[in-house]
Amino acid sequence: MTSTLRTDLLRIVGTPNPVGGTLPILHGLPQQTAAGVGVDDEMRHNLAYGVPHTLLPYTRQGGYDRDRAEREVPCVVLENATLTATFLPSLGGRLWSLVHRPSGRELLHRNRILQPANLALRDAWLAGGVEWNLGTTGHWPLTCEPLHAARVTAPDGTPGLRMYAFERLRRLVLRMDTWLPAGSPVLYVHIAVHNPAPTETPVYWWSNIAVPQDRDVRVLGPADHAFHCDYVSDLRRVPFPQLDGADHSYPGRVPCAADYFLDLPGGERPWIAALDERGTGLVQTSTARLRGRKLFCWGTGTGGKHWQEWLSGPDSAYLEIQAGLARTQLEHLPMPAGATWSWTEAYGLLQADPVAVHGSWETARAAVGEALNALVSPLQVDLAEALAAEFGEPEELLATGSGWAALEIETGALAASPLLPFGVPTDAQEPWRRLLETGTLPVCDPPAEPVTGVHWRALLEAGAADWHALYQLGLLRLAAGDQEAAREAFQRSIAVQSSPWALRALAFLTPDRQQAADLALSAHRLRPGLLELTIETLEALRRAERPAEALALIEALPAADRAHGRIRLAEAEAAHASGDDERVRRLLSEGIQVDNMREGELSLDTLWLAVHPGTPVPPQYDFRMADG
Q1: Mind spelling out the 3-state secondary structure of 317-339?
Q2: Is-contact 494 467, C-beta < 8 A?
Q3: What are phi and psi of 42, to 5 degrees?
């Protein structure tokens, strides 16, 4: 069978795709300073380097619930005699399925549902398949966004899928070419990341690979130590797989959620595999630049099981094996101005002697390494890397992403390339095009979607006068790390015309919790129907310890808003802070379902235990990942 590429529809039960919100994400990520035994100077530097102080220009991505129905999702399918690979360009380009055709075996955790949950930088995230992550620590901003996609062809006629995007937080260009040569037992994925800026940029990449979990699935890699962290302890270097008297290479037997970043020796071929009791399963390998390898498991406790059911439905346990540029996911690497970094990954079914796979760690590693070399040698992966450079211009567009790259090309900040046809700007970019053409940003309410970049800031610094332009100038200053200048722009915006947007931004920049709550309330009064602003206002009141005002605000809301899970949770927390635990127990008894429960969030667990001391947390409220 020759290699083929086709478009198709994935029929699946799920919710509609999440949508972008109105409010930009003003906060950044916490500084990574928690490093313990065995962390060397290089890693310590990378932990502190490049942590973003804001997630601008992105807005939150939510609007989903848990009411699912059958739907169709566009997909692109690559196939040869050995493998069928299904990609979802409209959902971050995710590799949704990889089927080994001779055996009919699905090599990935192919989720039976499309259910967003709050695990990504922007909120919405999906479990399953292989997720590509570029930018900064966490599930990347485009994980539930459409990418551009096109058909390309190798010199020997092999069809390939090219997906590409402009990641706006780090202002990086991503190109991803995937192909299945005729007769190949592995899928090749070539990644190229380009920094078009005249300055160094912090870079992060991890390929997150979800695979089925069972008690006898063993995760293997060429390392005998790992950097370990969980939800209660610092990052530290430990022996692997034996830790605290247990073999942690069997994730289905580990009680708590944890990360294990394998410490691969220099010069060792990078790979990671998850193999079942028969010594069979998925293996991933790459060229040397993709240095890191990781095992993540949810744990076998009540909280870990609940999370997996929350994301994938019942009886769908999975774990993740991952590959990244740095040794851990807590690090960023400095990428020089104008640089392009590239590497090639390979994915396929590996079969090894089951006795060896489940024997001693040294025996298992050696057996899997030999089986991998027989499946695909390092030379073959290097040749695939060289071949990727020969893929030419797209021949057919298969999917369309956002217009932000096209806008940046119009400004001259991004070079146009026939290899990456980014199309034209769309309605979302039109206000900024007007600024380019006329020197004036049109007034928009709600505001135009934010941008970042020194060229945009220069345009607004030169002529911002109305409330909207001054608000956008404040966001650009905040994105550049100039908080005091941002505050001044927001104050000027309010002086021209009071808006909920500038008031909210000032509340974020105000360290005094009482003043911040007052500003948040003022913003809410100007736009009481905006649910995401209502939720933020209630959080500001909670931090300011003003539960009576929170309850009054909630009681004035329309019934539909008051029934929202986040609002019900805020009501229960305010009632508890007011001493009305009977009201809390009633709300919990009626049911509080927070559709966007955040990974690691303990609000429901804590609330239950506060009003039911000594009583076990019910499974539906147990999201604990450390000891649940």
Answers
A1: CEEEEEEECCCCCCCCEEECCCC
A2: yes
A3: -60, -50
Q: How is the chain split into domains, by residue range?
A: 4-396, 510-621
Provide the pLDDT for residue 600.
Answer: 84
The residues that bridge with 99 in the sheet, in sequence order, are 84, 106
How high is the pLDDT of residue 234? 84
Listed residue (510, 447, 523, 463) closest to 484, CA to CA: 510
Q: Which amino acid is at 187?
A: L
58-107 confidence digits (pLDDT tens):
999 999 999 999 999 999 999 999 999 999 999 999 999 999 999 999 99
Strand partners, 118: 124, 598
The CA distances from residue 282 to 122, 272, 427, 503, in Å, are 29, 9, 42, 51
The Cα–Cα gap between 482 and 362 comes to: 52
- The DSSP call for residue 617 is P
Furthest C-alpha separation in the chain: 75
User: What pLDDT, in 10s, does the model give residues 490-507?
Assistant: 999 999 999 999 999 999
Q: Mind giving me the DSSP string for 549-583?
A: HHHHHHHTS-HHHHTSHHHHHHHHHHHHHTT-HHH
Look up residue 17 and give its two tokens. Answer: 């795709």
Q: What is the pLDDT of residues 294-326, one digit of tens each?
A: 999 999 988 899 999 999 999 999 999 999 999
**pLDDT above 70 coverage of the chain, percent:** 99
Mean pLDDT value of segment 271-277? 98
Strands 236-239, 271-275: parallel, antiparallel or unpaired by DSSP?
Answer: unpaired
Q: Give the CA radius of gyration of the chain.
A: 25
Enter the tokens of residue 1.
Answer: 């069978």
Cβ(575)–Cβ(587) under 8 Å?
Answer: yes
Give the residue from 408, 6, 343 showing the smallest Cα distance to 175: 343
Phi, psi of 626 (to 5 degrees): -100, -45
Tokens 């940003």 sit at which residue? Answer: 441
How far CA 504 is from CA of 268, 357, 429, 459, 550, in Å, comes to 51, 56, 23, 24, 17
CA neighbor of 46 nearest in space, from 339, 329, 338: 329
Question: Across the chain, what does the average pLDDT equal?
Answer: 96
Q: What local confidence, expressed as pLDDT, does residue 434 receive? A: 97
- pLDDT tens-digit series, residues 48-63: 999 999 999 999 999 9
- Can you say whether the dihedral through the CA atoms of 458, 461, 466, 472 is positive or negative? positive
CB atoms within 10 A of CB 121: 24
Q: Whole-angstrom Cα distance, residue 584 to residue 592?
A: 10
Q: Cα–Cα distance between 47 and 236 in angstroms, integer?
A: 13
Backbone dihedral region for residue 461 (phi beyond 0: left; psi -120 to 50: alpha; all else: beta): alpha
Tokens coding 539: 């959080």
Residue count (the chain) = 628
Q: What is the pLDDT of residue 35?
A: 67
Q: pLDDT > 90: what percent of the chain?
A: 93
In angstroms, the CA 597 to CA 66 distance is 12
Q: Which two tokens stand for residue 590?
A: 């009626």
Mean pLDDT of 442-463: 96
Q: Give the phi and the psi of residue 186 in degrees, each rounded to 5.
A: -130, 150
Instruction: For 183-226, write each residue's pLDDT tens digit.
Output: 999 999 999 999 999 999 999 999 999 999 999 999 999 999 99
CATH code linked to domain 4-396: 2.70.98.10
